[in-house]
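It would be a great kindness if you could assist me with a short task in structural biology. The matter concerns a single protein, recorded as an amino acid sequence and a row of backbone structure tokens. The record follows directly beneath this note:
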Amino acid sequence: MRKLRTIEIERMSVEDFREAEKMPLVVVLDNIRSLHNVGSVFRTADAMRLQAVYLCGITATPPNAEIHKTALGGEESVGWKYFATADDAVEELRKDGYKIYSIEQAEGSTMLNDFAADRSTPVAVVLGNEVKGVSQSVIDKSDGCIEIPQFGTKHSMNVSVTAGIIIWELAKNYYFPKL
């Protein structure tokens, strides 16, 4: 086995990415403090060819050198919008026909391993602040909460790690549906 060189990996150009069909998934970042977390979400959104990333509240926006450090250009390929609040983003997504799921530990949350999105309906997932999580007002507007099962002593994971897990699980079911 030989590791592939970058030149051997056929990837689409930014222009081709913008024109390509996207997975109908929007990631909403609700007051994310870390620019590295924001960049990482952009990079993962590019890798899975997501519809968009919505940046809300104190979440920084491109162009930004610290976002670019981890996004490595994902912020240039993936569509994004800024909203003053995540509530505003959720309201727009709802008008556009999206199902909204907050990624949060909450009463009645659905464990990720039990969650199955309807492939015919676009989905938005809301990831919250590194300390406070998703705001309660957004949870109240959500169609549900999805929780990642955890088995250790900690009760949370880094936002970018959480995003990667959630995006992969949804992408896996979108790109490789069970027959």
Observations:
- The longest strand covers residues 23-30.
- The mean pLDDT is 96.
- The CA atoms of residues 12 and 20 lie 9 Å apart.
